[in-house]
Amino acid sequence: SGDEAKAERLLRAACDGQRGAGCMGLGLLYDPDHREGKSFSDVRKARALYAHACDMGAHSACVLRAVVLDFADASISHASLERDVERAARGCSAGGDTAHSGQPEACFVVAGFFQREALSLEAKGRAGAGASLDRAIAYERRRCALASREHLATAPCRAESWQSHRPSMRR
Fold first, then answer.
1. Which residues contact 94 (CB under 8 A, 6 or more apart)?
2. Measuring CA to CA, which residue among 71, 73, 103 is closest to residue 89?
3. Residue 15 to residue 28: CA distance in whole angstroms
4. Nearest to 67 by CA among 34, 97, 114
5. If we measure between CA atoms, which residue out of 135, 93, 83, 144 comes closest to residue 112?
6. Is the per-residue pLDDT at 167 higher than 70?
């Protein structure tokens, strides 16, 4: 529609002007999860715009980037995945960001990444499994501290369970 096209032009101008909120808004315009299949739907553009906005300091965009991370996408390089996890960690650690209540979701993504990494390293007999699990536990504890009761009812805190496996892991 004409309104969507106008919004796209205005948000693109803000993003091109290095305004993180503009890039995040443009990402939302392209994000199929927020657009319900409208004309601008393009998940790859949304992901890139969230990453760019996050890199400019828009912590809500870091949270949104975390939520759309696809660890199963084989086309994403390990280096790119690590950058996205670092962005997600910023979304988890952002204090006082009231524009988006997704901080626990970002923590959930990061904790899960490090927990899977720990299990993978342990299965391969490689060093670093314990350190990765320690990071997973720290992010999971942050998520549990930030999350609402409703969030924890659907995704219970896993920190203690993971902690119980820690003694058997290699450093």
1. 59, 62, 63, 103
2. 103
3. 12
4. 34
5. 135
6. yes
* Token pair 């901080």: residue: 103
| Alpha carbon distance 137, 116 (integer Å) | 12
Q: CA 119: distance to chain centroid?
A: 20
Length of the chain, please?
171
Q: Which whole-number Å values give the CA distances from 88 to 13, 18, 118, in the listed order?
A: 25, 20, 18
Quick: pLDDT tens for 7-18.
Answer: 889 999 999 999
Check: CB of residue 115 under 8 Å from CB of residue 162.
Answer: yes
pTM score, two decimals? 0.78
Hey, how many other C-beta atoms are within 10 angstroms of the C-beta on 90? 21
Of 2-16, 96-110, 146-160, the least confident: 96-110
Q: List all residues 6 or more positions away from 12 whose beta carbon is below 8 Å from its beta carbon.
A: 22, 26
CA distance 22 to 58: 10
Q: Is 152 helix (H, G, I), strand (E, B) or coil?
A: helix
